[in-house]
Structures are given as structure tokens and as C-alpha cells.
User: Fold this.
Amino acid sequence: MHQSTKPHFAGYFLAALLSLAASTALAETVAGPYGMTRNGLVGGFFGQGERWGQGGSQVILFAEGGLFTHASTLGNLGGLSGGIQMGWDGVPASGDDTIGLGSFQFDMWAGFPVSLFRIGDLFQLTFEPGMGMSYQASYLNMKLRGGFAVGEVEGDLTGTWWPGATSYATGPDGVGNDATSLKGTLYIGDDPAFFAWGEYYSSRREQESFDTTKSQEYGGLNVFGTTTRQDFENLIRIGLGVAF
Amino acid sequence: MVGIGTPWRRRRLVLMWAGLLMMPALAQAQVFESGESLLMGYSVTGGAIYEAGRGELSGWRDGVDPTPTAYGFRYFERNGLISGTIGAVAVVLGGAMAASGPKSVETWEDSNYRYTKTTYYSAAEQAAITGSAAQSASELMGSPNQSFDLQIFSRSLGGTTAGYKANLMFVGIPFEGGMVDVGMGLGKVTSAFQDKGQYFVSRYTYFGMPMRLNLVMGPVVTYLHFDWNWLSHAEHKAPVISGASKNTKEVESDAFPWRLGVQAALFGRLYVDGAATTPSLTSGDFGYSGSLGLRF
Assistant:
């Protein structure tokens, strides 16, 4: 009888990342990068939209967290964030060779939030460059988040850009996603709070070509390639869960 | 006539608005922040970078006369956590790969059969490997004087260059009046420019160990920076003549670049950095670079 004892790489990687996150969480917390004070969100979202013009829906569970660990000499705050999401993706992906996991979707990311501007307990503007790896691509991204508090209600509005030039699809060479998202979140209650968010996510499939017949710019040599983009995904998502 | 959509006009508008937004802060702040605070404190800077002359991006080895110009975006973090976090993720990834991979693989043949015996680490050995990786990762993340410098060049901003360069300084060794930074760096920058009907393409690839000596001098920090580019130790590739009309010269810039510069923080929020550069100490060639940004 054959018994496989080959360990699973993903399990070790996840366990090590979690221990790393736990050790980071022991650092002194000054404020939270979500809303005005929040450090973490656990929940799920429902998405509805289309991919390559074909409609469908998705149900995804997610957890993300962040904390400011450093205070600059000028009073700004900097820190670390990260998250993971996975679930069922029923938006059709037929004919797309960068999606090879059927209906299973995953995404994990890390970011470095920096508070640019803050007005007391009323408003804070945060910039967050980050990186990640999903079932479609590895990527860099940038987030700009405006958090606010009005009376008992706390919220934030987040714009995210995944530049196509920094996206490397898991499929063919020279392919990536140029994506943008706008997400609005409201937090109600305290310790823990419930949150609800709505997001519009749009992605274009970007192809970098080095076909020398398409350019005569440098004596017939196309040094920088030619970028073509096609509409790929458009999704509306609604998320619910608990914030800490 | 200069139209509203020209790059120069757009740049002027951006600079004007940035100046107006900064006016209240500038009015209250002192002119210079101390160099000590600039070097030893935590700060993040985002802004613009410009490079020109016969520096690391030029075709200095092959006697190319015209030189490229590079405009880009720079993100610079001092005494933060970006480099340590990226390094920690890499260490964790390496540890996980090592723990899940085979300990040994033996292959032998016997008559008409070939046998392979693969031995994996025991549970205790796997725990030791991942535990050691996690410990190293925590130490990297907690390194107090790490810094991170990302430069992204784009032709959309003007100039002749596109690409990126990143230096992750994992370790900063402070001493009285200064600090030594050591880390790892990588980059890939391509320039294409022309002169009198001739076209030139210069490619610079970088993977190696950056080293920087920082010295506080009153309100400024002077630095001597060396990128020990391991890729430049390979044999220099001869220029290639290419293109439809055979009028394009492609060259590799195998540089070991040095830069001697000065940086300062003005009015608290404004960061300025200027440097003289050379692609190699023995080249006799010089270029320059400058960057301007907002500090947070």
C-alpha cells in the first residue's frame, strides 16, 4: 500500500504568513487604516456582473486587517495591511486562459498604508501602495482611502488602481489586467461594528506586444511594445460583515 | 502655440496646484528640517525624479554620444517597514518551499527497471525549518533602520526612458552623525533616443547589492551610494545594429553606478535630492539626477 507523506506547500506558506501577521499584530496600534479607527474586517460579499460579456454571480468570503505601527517626524502614520479572500466565482470564464481554477477564486494581498492628512476624529486621507497574487495575476496596486466619522456613523470611500503594466497574468506572457475599483463602506456600532459596503469593479485585459511590424518609431525597432486593451470584467459587489 | 494638453503645460498646472495646496503648511514651517531628523526619523516621500547625462542609463561603454533623459515617479521610505516586509515574505516563501520539498532524491537502475527514492523531511524537521524562517522573517520586519526606494520611469511624463529600479535596504547601521545602508536591488530600464537621423537604444538591467554611506551635515544629509550590479560582471555584449533601415544601435549599459548626492527637507514637507552620478568610477563619464517630493 502506498501512503503519500508529501507535505502541502500552500499549508506551510499560509501558516507561516499567519504567524507573521500575529507577530505584527503585537506591535503598538496607534489608529486604524479603515474608516477612522478600524483595524480589521471579516465577512463576505456577493458579486454580480459580466466577464467577456457573459453574466454571472459570485460569493466570496474575506478577511483583511491593517494597523499603523509607525509615526513619522511630521505626525503622519504608516503601517501594514493584508488580506485574503476565496470563494465561488460563477461569472463565466470560458475561453480565458488566465483563469485555470474553474469556479474557485482566491486573492491575497499586502499593503503599506500611510496617512496623508487628518482632521481630528472627523476625516483621514490614506494612501496605500500594495502587492498581491490572485487566481488571475500577480500585481501591484495603489489605494486612496478617505475615512470619515459623522456622529455615530463611521465610513470610508476607497479608490483602487491595479495598473496593467504591473500585472502579470498567470497565463500567457505579456498579458495582465488593468483594473479599477470604487468602494464605499459604512461601519455601524462599536467593538465590534457591523459594516456594509458596495463596490464597482472594472477590469480591462491588457496585452503587451513586441510585434516589430507595428511600429517604425526607432528605425523600425519597436522598443517599448504596443499595448492593446479590451473590456474584460465589470462587477457590482455588496459586502457584509464584522469590523474590529 | 502651446496647447492646454501639452505635457509642459500639464506639468506647470500640476506644480502650480501643488504649490497652492502647500502654502498654509509652508507658511508655518521652518525652512530646513535637521539632517539628523531626516536620516534617523521615519518618513515616506512621494514625488518626481529626473535623470540625465552620461549616467548608468546611457550608452557610455559603447561611445554613444547623445544621452537619455528620464522622468519618473519616486517612492522613498526611510526607517519604515516596506523592505523588511517584502524580505520577510520572501523568507517565509523560501522556508515553505524548503519544508515542502524533498530532503533527498536517489535514483538507481536494476536490470530493466529504474528506481527513484524520494525522502521528505519529518514533521519535526519541517517545523524547525518553518520556525527558523518565521524567526528570520520577524527579525527582518523588525529591522529599525531599513529603507525602501522605488523609481518608476515613464515616457508618458516626458523623456526617452521607461522602466523601474528598486533598492530594498534591509539593514541600516547607525553611527554618530550618519548611517550605512545595505540591501538588495533590482531594476530594468530601457532608453530610446535619436540624434541626426541615427537611433539608439540603451538597456540597463540591475540585480545586486546597494550600499550607501549617509552623513549628517547640519540641515542636510550627504550620501555616497554604490549599486554593486552583479549582472554587470557578465561579458559585455557588443552593440547590435538593427531596425528596418539598419540605423538603430542597441547597446547594453553594464554599469556599476556611483552617486554622490545631498538631500534635505525644506519647510517640513518638501523633500529635495540632487546627485552627481557616474556609471563606473573608471569611466570618466558623469551624469546627474534630482528628485523633488512631498514628505509624510
Summary: Helices of chain A lie at 9-25. The domain at 30-243 of chain A is CATH 2.40.128 (Lipocalin). Chain A has one domain: 30-243. The two ends of chain A are 49 Å apart (CA to CA).
